[in-house]
């Protein structure tokens, strides 16, 4: 179809959420936070005490997620879980269950459904490589582990969670390892992706760069 898609992939806490959201706002496009879908599945599994090694049960949960995105709020079965899914435990669980092919497969249709006129900005790990391989613009947003840990620390404190810098560094490293080394949809720059290192860049500058690339691609 002709509906344009911009994919913004990258490691955890690289700033892709903020950048993708703002690019979508600027262009009047829809926004897909694909990580939220993995987090919703993880939260669901934690709440139901689903065996986190049971690929089939987890895929079932993913397939039957009752979720909706209303403005900035994320609703799971009538409950506002916008903040709850940001907890570190949920993120870590999400990254574990994301290694299961059946879970990824179960979430594919849901993700494709976000592509609606006038366009979509999709953020995640495999948006450009797997879900939207023909995207008009693909960006791989990255930053040093230290820069990302610093941002995540601030995010957690701002949201009223407690945070410890050393734990965050270790968690980030572990999550990077899992995301880049898994055999299915590993985190790698998609073919044709522009790589943007935001270690020394603020969100305004990153947004401006993505918009510039997009303008050049149309
Ligand atoms: O981006 P976010 O940190 O919210 O994603 C949580 C986890 O979900 C990631 O660590 C990653 O393992 C997984 N994920 C994924 N594919 C995506 C988005 C997220 O595997 N497209």
TrEMBL record:
Enzyme class, broadest EC rank: transferase
**Which annotated residues bind ATP?**
10-18
Catalytic reaction(s) noted: dCMP + ATP = dCDP + ADP; CMP + ATP = CDP + ADP
Question: A GO molecular-function term, please?
Answer: kinase activity
Q: Which domain of life is it from?
A: Bacteria
Domain spans labelled Cytidylate kinase: 6-213
Has UniProt tagged this entry with the keyword Zinc-finger?
no
Which CDD domains is this protein grouped with? CMPK (cd02020)
Keyword field: ATP-binding, Cytoplasm, Kinase, Nucleotide-binding, Transferase
Keyword field contains NAD = no
Pfam families referenced in this protein's UniProt entry, alphabetically: Cytidylate_kin
Principal place where this protein is found? Answer: cytoplasm
> What Enzyme Commission number(s) apply to this enzyme?
2.7.4.25
The listed locations are: Cytoplasm
Q: Which Gene3D superfamilies match?
A: P-loop containing nucleotide triphosphate hydrolases
Q: HAMAP family, per this entry?
A: Cytidyl_kinase_type1
To which protein family does this belong?
Belongs to the cytidylate kinase family. Type 1 subfamily.
Protein name as it appears in the record: Cytidylate kinase
Identify the coding gene: cmk
